[in-house]
Design the sequence.
């Protein structure tokens, strides 16, 4: 309609159709062509806009959601921001139970988007009544007319990416994609995108990125949930201490694990080399590509698509703070020279 003049009915019309940007400098030493799907170009600055809009519109279609109803979710921040944004436009109340690992900036953003926020301890088990899952479930049970998005256990999370991210990547690469590298949290992004891509070409290799301290990689390899794998780590939105049903492990060929420290430095490197200010998990995905390249995974003719899930502005008090990096000990080792130099003129 009026979209050719860049005039939109509301912000939700801008969700999806994110650009793909070639990564040239960072990958100049690697074999293959590397393309980043930059999800920060969504209006809520992350891939989670896609699932928030899709899941809420499916609930509307099924008559589950009526104006004035409440939408409840557990979230590391991005999904919450997207649900809050959709709720503002569509006239729903929004309640979010978030992990104490989430940055203060993220929590403040959610409040400013009109959401009511519950901050829950990060390092308790999923069945602990204080966990953000249990808090969200309790609120949902207590409130009539509420919908629980439940992104880790909602098939619609996969469907949202099957309907949008997958076809976009296929079209943007003219069907020439050979590898997809994507972080796995709920697993919705990698599973839905992979399902679509493998239907077009079953030879496309799907590589998931997991964190040390998460159970996903081992579960993929053995189908065993091993709680000895679990320990606290810093990266938000990647890996898990449970097995989400929003992950279709059968469409993923393999997982690569990345460290907090290397992912943080790689996120900073993306900004300095490609001019793309992206989030911590984008650094993790790119770190996985470095490791895969070093182990000879890619050929010169391969077209590797990496998903950058969100924007760097959400990590100003973490990865992009020298103080935080020092506190983690991330400047103590071989990466010491990566500390930014700020000169104060007096
Ligand atoms: N990166 C960030 C910053 C996220 O918030 C998430 C979602 N938890 C992911 C990556 C992983 O996406 P998905 O949940 O679709 O696996």
Sequence:
């Amino acid at each position: 309609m009026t979209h050719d003049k860049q005039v939109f009915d509301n912000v939700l019309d801008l969700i999806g159709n994110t650009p793909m940007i070639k990564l040239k400098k960072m990958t100049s030493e690697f074999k293959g062509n590397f393309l980043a799907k930059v999800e920060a170009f969504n209006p809520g600055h992350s891939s989670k806009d896609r699932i928030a809009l899709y899941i809420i519109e499916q609930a509307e279609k099924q008559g589950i959601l009526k104006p004035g109803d409440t939408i409840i979710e557990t979230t590391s921040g991005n999904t919450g921001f997207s649900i809050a944004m959709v709720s503002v436009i569509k006239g729903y109340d929004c309640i979010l139970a978030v992990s104490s690992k989430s940055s203060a900036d993220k929590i403040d953003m959610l409040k400013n988007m009109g959401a009511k926020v519950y901050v829950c301890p990060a390092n308790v088990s999923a069945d602990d009544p204080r966990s953000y899952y249990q808090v969200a479930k309790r609120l949902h049970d207590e409130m009539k007319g509420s919908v629980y998005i439940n992104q880790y256990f909602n098939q619609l999370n996969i469907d949202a990416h099957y309907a949008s991210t997958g076809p976009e990547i296929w079209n943007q690469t003219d069907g020439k994609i050979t590898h997809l590298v994507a972080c796995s949290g709920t697993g919705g992004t990698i599973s839905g995108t992979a399902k679509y891509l493998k239907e077009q070409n079953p030879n496309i290799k799907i590589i998931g990125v997991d964190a040390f301290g998460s159970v996903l990689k081992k579960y993929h390899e053995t189908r065993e949930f091993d709680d000895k794998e679990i320990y606290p780590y810093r990266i938000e939105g990647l890996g898990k201490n449970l097995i989400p049903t929003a992950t279709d492990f059968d469409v993923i060929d393999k997982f690569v694990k990345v460290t907090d420290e290397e992912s943080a430095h790689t996120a900073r490197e993306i900004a300095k080399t490609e001019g793309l200010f992206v989030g911590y998990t984008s650094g993790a995905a790119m770190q996985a590509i470095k490791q895969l390249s070093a182990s000879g995974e890619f050929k010169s003719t391969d077209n590797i698509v990496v998903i950058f899930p969100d924007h760097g502005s959400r990590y100003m008090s973490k990865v992009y703070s020298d103080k935080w990096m020092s506190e983690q000990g991330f400047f103590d080792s071989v990466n010491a020279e990566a500390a930014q130099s700020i000169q104060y003129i007096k």
Remarks:
- The two ends are 56 Å apart (CA to CA).
- The mean pLDDT is 93.
- The first strand starts at residue 20 and ends at 22.
- The beta strands are 20-22, 33-38, 70-75, 93-99, 116-120, 146-148, 179-183, 205-211, 254-258, 303-308.
